[in-house]
Amino acid sequence: MNKCLKLDLSYDNAAIAIGVSLSKLKRYDEAEVVLKAAAKIQPDNALVKQNLAATLARAGKYMEALPYFRQAASLAPDNPAVLMGLAHCLDSMDAHRKEALKVYKNVVKRFPDSQFAEDAKQILNRAGQADLRKVVDDGYRPDAVEYMIGAMKRFTEIRVSKLGVWPWRSRRLVRPGWKSTIH
Amino acid sequence: MVRVVAVPQQGIDPKLICLACSATAISKTLCLGWEAMYGMVDDSDICFNYGVALSELGRVEESLVR
Description:
The structure holds 2 protein chains of 2 kinds.
Chain A: H1 2-7, H2 12-24, H3 28-41, H4 46-58, H5 62-75, H6 80-91, H7 97-110, H8 115-133, H9 142-157, H10 160-163
Helix pairs in contact in A: 2-3, 2-4, 3-4, 4-5, 5-6, 6-7, 7-8, 8-9
Chain B: H1 14-22, H2 28-40, H3 44-56, H4 60-65
């Protein structure tokens, strides 16, 4: 990468790649500097914004990462990876959890056959389970019921072949040697 | 060890072959191809793709230095 920039200083993707490599090495501060410089040169490049946001999020700077994720999502609205990054970032901040769930649902709806949708479904299911555990004062929670219906629908969609053999066998309820009380 | 890339006079440019392969997956073999060209030609595309290949194969530090 070093030689690439020496040969061609305007090779934009090299700066992104350097930023990503630094981020991989957990050298977040250096990665941030490189990617911010690249973002200044290429303000409309979604990849720069996405990687800058991801670097900031990895460093725990979620508040700072959020506007970059939003910019990346508006520049590349059809990129599920960007949307998932935005959702993860929102999910990491209590004040934005509701919006995070909306983005996850959006990913499931728009990219149903992708791995991103599967990941988003798992996160939504976990969120639903967590909500179920919350104390309910009176009546039922519509969102909890919705979650249960969704889970049941998913279960019925699974083919029998995918379920495989039941991991347990039915056992006799009456212990050997005991006489059944049912006549 | 001397690594070379043979280029037939009317063949396809090895850089184009490596670029096409990079679009699908990064492998050690592909990385060797980039490495060979990196040593022979001063070309920013080759340097960039060699760096990406190294990074993808986990040789991240090396990708920065090269």
